[in-house]
Structures are given as C-alpha cells and as structure tokens.
C-alpha cells in the first residue's frame, strides 16, 4: 500500500492522511489489487463501443490509526482529520485520493467522501474509517473520433490520439464509394474488405471488438443493386487501437468516400 496518502479537495486544497505521530495507515478495503502489485498486464477493451460516461461506483474504505501525545491531543487530531472532508461533503462534490508508493510512483482516483466514522479507541490510539464512493478501476472518458475524406487512389490518413490508458477496439464507418478497401493499423495489421462498390450515400460500418465483430451495410445510394459487396477475409486482423498518438491508413483502388474512426477512451482508476 502507499507510503503516503493525500486527499485533494475538489477546490485543490491538499490534506496529508499519513503523518508520523498523528495519522498512520492500517488498511484499505475496496482498493484495486495492483495498488500492492501490478497483477494485470493487459486489459482487453471488450466493453460496449461506443458510449459516454459510465462511472460505475464502488465503496472504498481507509482505516487510519489516529495517535497523540495525550488523550486530548489525540481527540484534537481526530477532529482535524474529520474536518478535512467536511467541505466536499457539504458541497456534494468528489475530491481525489492520491497514493505515493514505496517505489516512488504516484497513483490517484476520484473519491466522493462520506461521513468519517470512529471505529474504536484504546488508550491513546483511535481507529477511524474514512469511507468514499469511487469509480470502478476501469472507466470511460468521452469517446474519441476522427474523420478524413477519400478521393481516388490517394490514401486516407486518420491521425488519432487515444488518450486512454488501455488499447481500444475501434469502429470504422465509411460513407460513399470505395473499391477494394484496406484499413491498416499502425503495427501493420489490416482489415481487407474485398471488392466493394457503393452509392454516394451508402454507409459501411466495421466493428472490430470480438464480442461485436461484424460488418454492417446501410443502403442509401442511387446504385442500390450494386451496393457494398465483399468480405473481411482470412487476411484481415481486427486489432486494437494502441494508446497514444498514431495513424490508421485507408487505401483503395478508387472511389469517393469519408472514413470515420471512433473508439472508447478507457482509463484505470489509478490516475
């Protein structure tokens, strides 16, 4: 667990919850396992694509031993600790719990404080439970999206920035006419649609997430009898979109269309 724990109020005011002789951390309930060690090497983004905020909540409780040089001093320390959380409780806003690990790494997540509770008292030590309502460790930020136009045989370069901390399965939407489309990921993997033709108002959507893997067609063009025909053949790899900045490339034998790529921006609760 963290060597040092800090609570940041919603207005930025900082309170240290681990102070020698005053507040000593005992245990945390509901914290992510990888606060102690990184037990998750890779998190698949096999969750609904695409959605808005989804703050699934969970309770987190920190137990602290409140210490003092006398009974009166210990009581004063406990009152001071309780007062740290009164402003955000009154405002009805969430602050931030920040942990500085023994290794020096800093992790944090959003936390809405509940009324602190005194658990027990023995001599000059009082145990206090600090309770919070927090997001799940995997949560959504607004979905990312980027669009570029295609005309002729020139490649479409979709420059993106996946600001999440987890690779995401993108959704590709092509509107218009494209002949033999290939969507290439930054790592060289690609999706090949085969021989494709469409009217100017037709839409093809490629879902890459394993639980939703499919290619949808919406007919709306003038050449309805010659709408999208093709396949995602055995050469296709429906891959994830890496974190950070990169470029996805659409190449084709010809046509006029626009390509939109949409993805979930996923982060972990450790900041």
At a glance:
The chain is mainly beta and 271 residues long.
Describe the structure.
The protein is mainly beta and 271 residues long. The protein has two domains: 4-136, Elongation Factor Tu (Ef-tu), domain 3 (Beta Barrel), CATH 2.40.30.200; 140-268, Jelly Rolls, CATH 2.60.120. Helix content is 7%, strand content 46%. The protein has two helices and 17 strands. It has helices spanning 71-83, 86-91, and strands spanning 4-8, 14-16, 23-29, 57-66, 95-100, 106-113, 117-122, 125-135, 138-151, 156-162, 171-179, 182-184, 190-192, 203-207, 214-218, 244-251, 254-268. Strands 1, 2, 3, 4, 5, 6, 7 and 8 form an eight-stranded antiparallel sheet that branches. A five-stranded antiparallel sheet has the order 9-17-11-14-15, with no helix packed on it. The protein is rod-shaped and about 80 Å long. The model is unreliable at 33-55 (pLDDT under 50).
CA-to-CA gap between the ends? Answer: 16 Å
What composes the largest sheet?
A: 8 strands, antiparallel
Order of helices and strands: EEEEHHEEEEEEEEEEEEE
Total beta-strand segments: 17
Q: Look at the structure and give the CATH class of the largest domain.
A: Mainly Beta
Number of domains: 2
Quick tags:
Jelly Rolls, 17 strands, Tail protein, Elongation Factor Tu (Ef-tu), domain 3, 2 helices, mainly beta, 271 residues
Question: Strands, helices and their partners?
Answer:
Elements: E1 4-8, E2 14-16, E3 23-29, E4 57-66, H1 71-83, H2 86-91, E5 95-100, E6 106-113, E7 117-122, E8 125-135, E9 138-151, E10 156-162, E11 171-179, E12 182-184, E13 190-192, E14 203-207, E15 214-218, E16 244-251, E17 254-268
Antiparallel strand pairs: 1-2, 1-5, 3-4, 4-8, 5-6, 6-8, 7-8, 9-17, 10-16, 11-14, 11-17, 12-13, 12-16, 14-15
């Amino acid at each position: 667990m963290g060597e040092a724990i800090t609570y940041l109020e919603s207005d930025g005011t900082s309170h240290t919850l681990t102070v020698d002789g005053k507040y000593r951390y005992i245990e945390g309930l509901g914290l992510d396992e990888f606060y102690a060690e990184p037990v998750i090497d890779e998190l698949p983004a096999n969750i609904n694509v695409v959605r808005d905020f989804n703050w699934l909540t969970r309770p987190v409780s920190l137990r602290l031993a409140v210490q003092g040089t006398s009974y009166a001093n210990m009581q004063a320390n406990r009152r001071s600790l309780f007062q740290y959380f009164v402003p955000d409780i009154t405002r009805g806003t969430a602050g931030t719990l920040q942990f500085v690990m023994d290794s020096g790494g800093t992790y944090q997540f959003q936390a809405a404080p509940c009324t602190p509770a005194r658990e027990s008292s023995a001599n000059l030590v009082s145990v206090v439970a600090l309770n919070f309502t927090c997001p799940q460790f995997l949560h959504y930020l607004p979905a990312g999206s980027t669009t570029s136009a295609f005309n002729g045989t020139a490649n479409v370069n979709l420059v993106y920035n996946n600001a999440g901390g987890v690779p995401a399965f993108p959704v590709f939407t092509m509107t218009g006419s494209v002949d033999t489309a290939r969507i290439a990921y930054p790592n060289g993997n690609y999706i090949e649609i085969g021989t494709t033709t469409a009217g100017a108002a037709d839409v093809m959507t490629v879902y890459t997430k394993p639980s939703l893997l499919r290619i949808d067609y919406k007919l709306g063009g003038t050449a309805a009898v010659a709408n999208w025909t093709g396949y995602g053949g055995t050469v296709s790899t429906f891959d994830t979109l890496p974190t950070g900045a990169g470029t996805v490339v659409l190449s084709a034998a010809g046509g006029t269309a626009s390509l939109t790529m949409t993805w979930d921006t996923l982060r972990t609760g450790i900041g």
